[in-house]
Design goal:
Layout: E1 15-16, H1 19-28, E2 36-40, H2 46-52, E3 58-62, H3 66-76, E4 81-83, E5 100-105, H4 111-119, H5 124-127, E6 128-136, H6 137-144, H7 154-162, E7 163-171, E8 176-177, E9 184-191, H8 201-212, H9 220-226, H10 230-236, H11 250-264
Parallel strand pairs: 2-3, 2-5, 3-4, 5-6
Antiparallel strand pairs: 1-8, 6-9, 7-9
C-alpha cells in the first residue's frame, strides 16, 4: 500500500518508492522550461512530483486506473493534465511535432506492445526527444541485446531500427511497492535522426517474426518462405544459408525487409 492506494495486480502496478532512483530518473530527463512532458502510468505521482520541480512548459500524464485519476488531480491540481486512458490504446499522434520527453514505468504485461506502438510512429524524432523508460530486466536485455547473444531477437531488431539505446541501471525489487519478483532496468532511448528507410514497420515485424519464431533453425527456411529466389537473396547479402537467425545483424534484417517490400509493392 502506498498513499492509501493498493496496487492492482491485474494492471501490473508496482509503485516506485526509492527517492534516489526517482531523483535520478528526473535528472536524466534534462528538462527545461520549454519541454513538454508525457508520463505514462504515473501511479501515485512520486516521479510526477519530482518532474514538476523541473518546471516543464507542459505536463501530461496518461493513467488507466480511475482511482489514480482522483488521487493525481487532488495531489497536483492544474499543474498537470490527466488523461484517463489505456497507454496501449492512446492516439499519441495528437502530439505530433511536440518533441516530447516521455517517462514511464511500463507495466510488464504490455511494455513491448507500448514500445512497438511508439516505434511505428512515422516522424518519431520530431514526436519525441527522448524516452526514459523502466522495463522488466528480461525485456530490457532483449531490447539492448547484440547479434549472436541469447537475448537477441525481434525486439532487438525493431528497437535498434529507430532508437539509440543506453542502459542506465538495474533496479532491485525492494525499490517498489509491492516488490515485484524480478529486477527492473532503466533505459534511455533517443530517436535517431537517420535510420534505414522502410515503407512500413509492420513488414519488419513480419520478417523478424518469421525468422525468430524458429530461431534454432537455419535461415534457409525463412528465406525460402519469403522469397522464391532465396538463394539469390542470400548471395546478394553474402549470407551462408546454414546461419541461425541470431547470427544476422540488425542491418541485414533491414535489408531483407527492404527486399521483401520491393517484392510485395
Amino acid at each position: 500500500m502506498l498513499n492509501n492506494i493498493i496496487a492492482k495486480k491485474s494492471l501490473g502496478q508496482n509503485f516506485l518508492k526509492d527517492k534516489k532512483i526517482i531523483n535520478l530518473i528526473a535528472e536524466i530527463g534534462d528538462i527545461n522550461n520549454n519541454d513538454t512532458i508525457l508520463e505514462v502510468g504515473p501511479g501515485t505521482g512520486n516521479l510526477t512530483e519530482k518532474i514538476l520541480e523541473k518546471k516543464p512548459k507542459e505536463f501530461v500524464v496518461i493513467e488507466k486506473d480511475k482511482r489514480m485519476i482522483d488521487h493525481l488531480n487532488k495531489r497536483f491540481g492544474n499543474k498537470i493534465k490527466v488523461i484517463n486512458e489505456d497507454m496501449l490504446k492512446f492516439s499519441y499522434e495528437i502530439y505530433d511535432n511536440k518533441n516530447l520527453i516521455i517517462f514511464g514505468n511500463l507495466p510488464y504485461n504490455v511494455s513491448t506492445q507500448v514500445l512497438a506502438k511508439w516505434i511505428k510512429i512515422g516522424n518519431l524524432d520530431s514526436f519525441c526527444k527522448k524516452f526514459i523508460l523502466m522495463f522488466q530486466k528480461e525485456v530490457a536485455d532483449r531490447i539492448i541485446a547484440e547479434t549472436n547473444s541469447k537475448s537477441y531477437g525481434r525486439l532487438s531488431v525493431l528497437s535498434n531500427w529507430k532508437l539509440d539505446i543506453e542502459k542506465i541501471l538495474d533496479i532491485e525489487p525492494s525499490s517498489f511497492v509491492p516488490s515485484p519478483k524480478i529486477n527492473s532496468t532503466l533505459l534511455k532511448l533517443t530517436p535517431k535522426k537517420k535510420y534505414y528507410n522502410l515503407k512500413d514497420p509492420k513488414n519488419l515485424e513480419h520478417i523478424t517474426n518469421i525468422f525468430f519464431s524458429q530461431r534454432r533453425k537455419m535461415i534457409k527456411q525463412p528465406l525460402k518462405f519469403l522469397f522464391k529466389n532465396f538463394e539469390d537473396i542470400a548471395e546478394n547479402l553474402n549470407l551462408e544459408l546454414n546461419l541461425r537467425p541470431q547470427n544476422l545483424n540488425n542491418l541485414t534484417y533491414y535489408k531483407i525487409c527492404e527486399m521483401y517490400e520491393a517484392l510485395i509493392d
